[in-house]
From TrEMBL:
Chain coiled-coil ranges: none
Species the sequence originates in: Maylandia zebra
Membrane topology reported for the UniProt record: Multi-pass membrane protein
Keyword Glycoprotein tagged: yes
GO BP, one annotated term: pore complex assembly
Cellular location(s): Cell junction, Adherens junction; Cell membrane; Cytoplasm; Membrane
Record's protein name: Tetraspanin
Keywords in alphabetical order: Cell junction, Cell membrane, Cytoplasm, Disulfide bond, Glycoprotein, Membrane, Transmembrane, Transmembrane helix
Family matches, as Gene3D superfamilies: Tetraspanin (1.10.1450.10)
Pfam family, one: Tetraspanin
GO MF annotation: an example: enzyme binding
């Protein structure tokens, strides 16, 4: 009896924690969607707010099944919960398979997606903040190089571009000095006109795609392993509990 209760409440605590996290993600996504301007992009691939809503809603539904099923001893809901966890685990394995054996295709589509995000910079505040965060976090600029920012209408390097930011890059590309207290948002102006040797003195010149791929190779196995381990743990807990109740 004690073992039965221990498994039951352990499962409930796991599910409740992720249920709360999913509710927060959904709430943040909805708030961001309502708070920003209406004339922005509404596609899942380039809209961080919409992505948060979708991921949060799916997590909320799955963890609700686990919470309610564990609390009410509902076998049907627990079986659905296990089925969804197994499906997620299989999707992870499939994604790893596709990423390993179709690397060139994945890289090409990722590059295309990142280029599209650069083109829509300034159109969507959430997307702009996400790109700035990535460039500062990974100390990179653009997709393949800092000159990719010419794909954006505001930073396009041409004589016909009336923008003050023409031939420049966003401030998130700039190398910030340790003793710098005031952020210079104009630090990237005119950087596309400089050769890489000169530009790298003031901005990051390496593209974000290479930096993200490097990070993924060094950390993705750890993240995937922890996620898969957590899913297997929950599946095991549910199976043990089902065996005890049946």
């Amino acid at each position: 009896m004690r073992g039965y209760r221990g498994v039951k409440y352990t499962l409930f605590i796991f599910c409740y924690f992720f249920w709360v996290v999913s509710a927060i993600l959904t709430a943040v996504g909805i708030y961001a969607k309502i708070a920003r301007e209406k004339d922005v992009v509404d596609t899942l691939t380039v809209d961080p707010a919409l992505l948060l809503i979708v991921v949060g809603s799916v997590m909320f539904l799955i963890t609700f099944l686990g919470c309610f099923g564990a609390l009410r001893n509902t076998i049907c809901l627990l079986k659905m919960f296990v089925g969804l966890l197994v499906a997620i685990l299989l999707l992870q394995i499939a994604a790893a398979f596709v990423g390993y054996f179709f690397t060139d295709t994945v890289m090409e589509r990722t590059e295309r997606l990142m280029m599209k995000a650069i083109e829509r910079y300034r159109e969507d505040q959430d997307l702009e903040n996400a790109i700035d965060f990535i460039q500062k976090k990974f100390q990179c600029c653009g997709v393949e190089s800092y000159k990719n920012w010419s794909r954006n209408a505001y930073f396009e390097c041409s004589d016909t571009n009336p923008s003050l930011e023409a031939c420049g890059v966003p401030f998130s590309c700039c190398i910030r000095l340790q003793n710098q207290t005031v952020l210079n948002t104009m630090c990237g102006y005119g950087m596309q006109q400089l050769e890489e040797k000169l530009a790298r003195q003031d901005i990051f010149t390496i593209g974000c795609l290479d930096k993200i791929v490097w990070w993924a190779k060094h950390n993705l196995l750890l993240v995937a392993g922890l996620t898969a381990g957590l899913l297997l743990l929950e599946v095991t807990l549910v199976n043990v509990w089902l065996q005890k109740t049946l």
